[in-house]
Every structure is written in structure tokens, then in C-alpha cells.
Amino acid sequence: MRPSRISRRDLLKIHTPEYLRSLRRADALARIEPEDYPLPVRSGLTGVEYLGIVQEALPGALDAVGPDLLIYNAGSDPFIKDPLAGFRLTMSDLAERDLIVVTMSRERGIPVAMVLSGGYSADSWRIHTDAIEGILTRFDRR
């Protein structure tokens, strides 16, 4: 077993320029460390576009870093009905995103700790529930 490498940095973050501006306004940028693989994208991405970015970028990031554990921040704020949303993702898109992340990690033998965050719509709880149900359906081997 190789020694664990602990990093407080994000492996991969997909964000809009507006997101960074909001952090600057809140004076929070100084407290945020740079990502290993930042992916600034335009606002208004659809689920197809967003999921394509995840499918394209995540394998290379996982393979390059080879983490012993992936702590996955599964935010629901990209949901189209979220008041802070910069993207146009449906509940189904977000469930698919979470399934992609977990599947790619498991294919590489990387355990995943999925934490729920973000999401300021009344549907945020349902988004997380659907995603977890999808993951359990695919991987639960009772």
C-alpha cells in the first residue's frame, strides 16, 4: 500500500466566470486554493454539454492524479431551477453526472466519498435522492 497523499485542493472543478465573480464580491476568493484541473465554461450549458465535459475531462484527471480516495462534492446548484444556477441541467442530468463520476472512479479502483452540497431550489433533496438511488441500483450487490 502506498502512502496516502492528502491534498486540500480540488481535483476538477467546472465553473462559470460568474461563479468566480460572486466569490470575489464575497471576498472569499482569498480562501480558495487553486484547482488541479479548473474548467471554466460559459454560463447556460445544457446537460448534454456539461456531461460531455465531465466525460472528457474526468478520466485524464483521475489517471494523472491517481487518488487513494475521491471526495466528490456533488452539488445540485447546476440545476436549471436553482436560483444560483449558471447551467441548465435537469434532475436527470445531475443524476447522470453523479453516476459518471462514481462509475469512472470504481473502474479505477478508487473509493468515493460523495458529499452533498449546493442547491438552493425546493427540489435539491430530490436531486440528491435520485442520484443516490441510481448509484445504488447500479452498484449495490446484495
Explain what this protein looks like in three dimensions.
This protein has 142 residues and is an alpha/beta fold. It has a single domain, classed as Histone deacetylase domain (Arginase, Chain A), CATH 3.40.800. 43% of the residues lie in helices and 14% in strands. The protein has four helices and four strands. Helix 2 packs parallel to helix 3. The N terminus is likely disordered.
Mind sketching the topology for me?
Layout (H helix, E strand, L loop, with lengths): L11 E4 L1 H9 L11 E4 L6 H19 L4 E6 L15 H17 L4 E6 L6 H16 L3
Parallel strand pairs: 1-2, 3-4
Helix pairs in contact: 2-3, 3-4
Short description:
With 142 residues, this protein is α/β, with parallel strands linked by helices. It has a single domain (12-139), classed as 3-Layer(aba) Sandwich (Arginase, Chain A), CATH 3.40.800. The protein has helices at residues 17-25, 47-65, 91-107, 124-139, and strands at 12-15, 37-40, 70-75, 112-117.
